[in-house]
Write a structure and sequence with these properties.
Helix content is 24%, strand content 20%. It is built from six helices and seven strands, in the order H-H-E-E-E-E-H-E-H-E-H-E-H.
């Protein structure tokens, strides 16, 4: 079983981290303000936004893929997907990578993320692409767990009261064979332009849908004085009729 820590220590893992960092920086520039949380295994990517005045935090899921890692500046912890030890409305940005695909209760994990994310916060979700090659090769953490398609991950987010706003694919370099040393950017650019739906991972930026639980039509209000009782036309609890006295005497 290839863990995330052992993968990113290899040459291929370092190349994949550089490519993903470039795509993440396109989503969120380095000057992004607010508190950022990396959930799953986001240690190679948090230095993009880590600053002394706004330090990032890391929360690794307690799974076989993301559990092992070296301590990270004293701001790293191991959590379970059903309960995140953070206050509600705590973070402005949350990066989820190596998280949803290895989680046993995906809906509970997304609902926990919804709680700790601010109302105007943003979620950047990175999951293995079902149509890509990385999901079908088990020599990396992207080959562990459940891959997703764009339609599937959009439905998962909608069920957890998130609204997907931006989709992109990344990681077009091959997951096996000799690791490309120089032209990785050229391979990435070629794949993104020729095969835009066949990247190794799907990157989705989503926001909280705080109006998801509000009904589309307002309820009709009826004044108290105009409320009518339900008719008991077919009720079996009918009152028996009293017989006349003459029939009782006979």
């Amino acid at each position: 079983m290839h863990t995330a820590a052992s993968f990113y220590a290899t040459r291929r893992g370092q190349a994949a981290a550089r490519l993903l960092c470039q795509r993440m920086a396109a989503f969120w520039p380095e000057g992004t303000q607010g508190h950022t949380l990396g959930l799953g295994y986001a240690l190679p990517f948090l230095p993009l936004w880590d600053r002394p005045d706004r330090p990032c935090m890391s929360a690794r899921l307690d799974t076989h893929v993301t559990r092992d890692a070296l301590p990270w500046h004293g701001r790293d912890c191991i959590v379970t997907g059903t309960h995140l030890p953070f206050d509600d409305l705590k973070f402005d940005r949350i990066v989820m990578i190596h998280a949803l695909e290895v989680s046993e209760d995906k809906n509970s994990l997304l609902r926990q993320v919804w709680k700790i994310l601010k109302d105007d916060g943003r979620l950047l979700l990175v999951v293995p692409n079902r149509a890509g090659l990385w999901a079908h090769t088990d020599n990396s953490p992207f080959g562990q767990g459940t891959p997703f398609s764009r339609r599937q991950i959009t439905r998962w987010l909608a069920n957890a009261c998130f609204q997907a706003q931006r989709h992109e694919d990344a990681l077009y370099v091959p997951p096996a064979g000799p690791c490309p040393s120089g032209p990785v950017r050229m391979v990435e650019w070629t794949g993104r332009n020729l095969f835009p739906r066949l990247g190794g991972v799907c990157m989705i930026e989503a926001v909280k849908d705080i109006y998801a639980a509000v009904p589309a039509r307002p309820a009709t209000l009826v004044p108290t004085g105009l409320r009518l009782r339900q008719a008991r036309v077919f009720s079996r609890n009918t009152t028996p009729r009293r017989q006349p006295r003459d029939m009782q005497n006979t």
